[in-house]
Each structure stands twice: as structure tokens, then as C-alpha cells.
Amino acid sequence: MAILPLRSVPTPHWLVSSAWIEHGPFAFWIVDALRPRLTVELGSYAGYSFCCFCEQIKRSGIDGRAIAIDTWQGDEHGGFYGDKIFDRLATYTAKRYPGMAELKRMTFADALHSVADKSVDLLHVDGRHFYDDVVEDFTAWVPKLSDRAVVLFHDTQVRERGFGVHRFWAELAGQYPHFEFPHCNGLGVLGFGSTLPPVVKSLFEQTADAALTAETCAAFAAAGRKISRSYELRRALTSPKHLRNLARDAIFGSRG
Question: Which domains, ranges and CATH numbers included, belong to the chain?
Fold first, then answer.
């Protein structure tokens, strides 16, 4: 039997444009299953994935904290931008997740000293996507990982613009328990810790069964599409042009 998302998949409270948008259901699931005491995200941009983690920490009543680390200046892959994105996210998280969510506007390396060794239960690596950068980010943060840590890598399916996550993911998958969702640019889930909760272990055990793996991937992908459709509809309500595009796609089929 496939591991399904939650009994009901809520629409994320912070619903913004994101290449991560259809992984929202898994963010809810992994937080609920792992119950992380400390979640750290390396690379947050508009904060969609970070706020999914925070929202489920809040909903599940977990005694945990979440830290987002980013310069909020941009990079070669995502483009460069001003202060507006950081200011919006900071205002939102301070109001909705007071005392739980923290934004550190600095480099990943500069933030290392402020996080205790062996304290991070959930690490999301989503910074610059060149191979050397991903290797450096993961290696530098390994001492911070707890004995029940899970590490997420986004863009494991992207093989253009110099992205190297897929190469490093292939190396790690040969060393640790793992699971990969191919939809929405790919999300790799790495079982780093040696004392993972049984329900999290059961996810990794599914990789031995191709049919079960496909069923679980399909379930999370379907739940993710509901969120992306919800986002598209919200945009349509505020953009006549976007509403026309949705209607065209519904009649003629999407060209994207």
C-alpha cells in the first residue's frame, strides 16, 4: 500500500509562485512523520517551501523551530532581485509563526556558527544548483545533522543550465536510504540519520518495490497538482489575462 500524503491535503497558507509548489503535500507529510525539532532551509527565495514546513509544525503542535537561510539577493539560476521579496516574507512569518520561524539573511557558511552541531532534524538544500555548490552546502552542514536527520534536495531531475544536483543525488543515493519524487523538477529525500522514525523508514523501504514507488509518487504528484491548480485559480481571480489563458488551455490544451 502506498504511503499517502495527509488524510486531507490543505492548501498552503503562503501560496506564492514557486518551482517547489507541487511538493507542498510532501512537506506536510515529512514534518508530520518526522516531527523535527529543528528544520533548516538553505535557499528560500519567496519562502513557499519554508512556510509549508512552518505551517505543518504549527498544525501538528510540534515543539520545533525553523530557520531559513538566504541572502535574498538571487543567483545565476533564479535571477537577482531587490528587498521586496525578503520584506514580504519577513512580515508574514513574524506574524503567523512568531517564536518559531527565523530568517537569517546571510550566506550558508556564515550561518553555520549559529546552529549547534547534531541539532538539525530536517535540512532542505535548495541554494545555487551547480554541482560544486550542492556538494559544498551538504558537506558543510553534515556536522549539524542529528541522528534522525532527513535531507531534501530539490531539482534532482533538472539537467540543463549547468544544474548539478542530479549528479550529486546519484552519488548520495548509492550511500544512504533514499526516495525520489520525479515531478515538479524532482525532489530527493535522503535518510541520513541512523535512528529514523519507523514511518519515515517505511518510505525508503519502498524503493525496493517499483510498483509501490510509482504508486506513492503518483499519489503525491496528484495532491501537488491540486495545490498548483488552486494557485492558478487564485491568480485568475486577480488577473483577467491569466483567466483567459486558463480558459484557452482548458479548450486547446496547455502548451507548457
Answer: 21-223 (3.40.50.150)
